[in-house]
Amino acid sequence: MERTGTILRGREFEPIEGRVVVDEDGRVEAVEAESVDSTDIIVPAFVNAHTHIGDSIAKEAGGGLSLEELVAPPDGLKHRLLRNADREELVAAMERSLRFMQQSGTAACLDFREGDVSGVRMLADAAAGLEVDALSFARGSVDAMHEGDGFGASGANDDEFGRERTATREADKPFGIHAGEVDASDIDPALDLEPDFLVHVVHPEPAHLERIDDEAVPVVVCPRSNLVTGVGLSPYAELAERTTLALGTDNVMLNSPSMFREMEFLAKLSELPADEILRMATVHGADIADLEYGVIEPGREARLLVLDGDSDNLAGARDPVRAVVRRAGVDDIREVVFGRTST
Ligand SMILES: [Zn+2]
To answer: In the chain, what is the greatest distance between 2 CA atoms, to the nearest angstrom?
Structure first.
């Protein structure tokens, strides 16, 4: 199959007018430059690098509560609501969030999954009928990590995580951990675990930035979540200078898991250029989870987002990368391609 339009090719999103050819195995076979009639814009489908979709039953609960009152275990509002819901209800709500992610152009999410082995199985059940890849960064036992795709630690002030880190390394799976969300106290102990990535890093001190740089630890930032919980904003430009940054929408309780919204907020809150933000929303998340998509290049799996460049919203935009990052939305989507299938 093939799709035509303006293709944002490679990690630099070089705009090429022409066609993307997808082979029998659902991989990009070629990106060919030629004059075409289509006004579509073809970008890599998104990788949402940090979610908690388990709280999809609690959307817009807890307005005005602090971060601790909202999500701290065991008695934060989120955990009380989750305890009172049955499994079927929780899985159904997670499935709807995943379906929305798929419809809004997301190929994969890196989900920090609570609830041990049974929590990992709930996410797998929720994703079973969908194309989107829901990766479980499990919490709790080492068995949960084996059942899922990696380990997602709450934070280094909660526990030591040495055993979990070792087991994750032995299983050759990624280990991620929240760090520096409320203050700087858990950043060094998180880095001591040699994680594959950190999440948040709102409050790094100069020495932390230096360590992140020296030790080449990627960071996933979640700007809208940080705005809702009032913890501040990460020093995006300083982090981007030093390491690989990826983008996540965090708790469904707090935010719609739309990468368009996350990109637009970040673009307008920060000095980061649009192409860097689009890399954060695509290939950088794919790099962290070792996924074979996230960039349009021959040999990569074809997970593509086809936007109508002539929609009432996007018509006449002078710069396709800026238009995708700062202006486009779910209504501009013509199609999401998942290998050989599409929605
Ligand atoms: Zn989180």
So the answer is: 60
CA 178–ligand 1 middle distance (angstroms): 6
CA of 50 to the centre of ligand 1 (A): 6
Cα 210 to averaged position of ligand 1 atoms, centre (Å):
23
Question: For residues 303 and 326, what is the distance between their CA atoms, to the nearest angstrom?
Answer: 21
Cis amide prior to 74 (ω within 30 degrees): yes
Q: How far away, in angstroms, is 321 Cα from ligand 1 center? A: 28
Range of the domain at 157: 46-288
Shared domain for 330 and 276, answered yes or no, is no
Q: Return the structure tokens found at 68.
A: 């601790």
Domain count, the chain: 2
Give the CATH number, domain containing residue 6. 2.30.40.10
Which domain-ending residue is among 288, 311, 327?
A: 288
Position 71 confidence tier, pLDDT thresholds 50, 70, 90: confident
Q: Which of 244, 271, 288 is the last residue of a domain?
A: 288
Q: Distance, CA 114 to ligand 1 centroid (Å)?
A: 11
**Do 75 and 26 sit in the same domain of this protein?**
no
Ligand 1 centroid, distance to 105 Cα (angstroms): 21
Distance 318 CA to ligand 1 centre (A): 36
Q: Show Cβ contacts of residue 55 under 8 Å, excluding neighbours closer than 6 positions.
A: 71, 78, 81, 82, 251, 252, 253
Q: Per residue in 260-290, pLDDT tens? A: 999 999 999 999 999 999 999 999 999 999 9
CATH assignment at residue 55: 3.20.20.140
CA–CA dist 194, 242 (Å, integer): 17
pLDDT at 340: 82
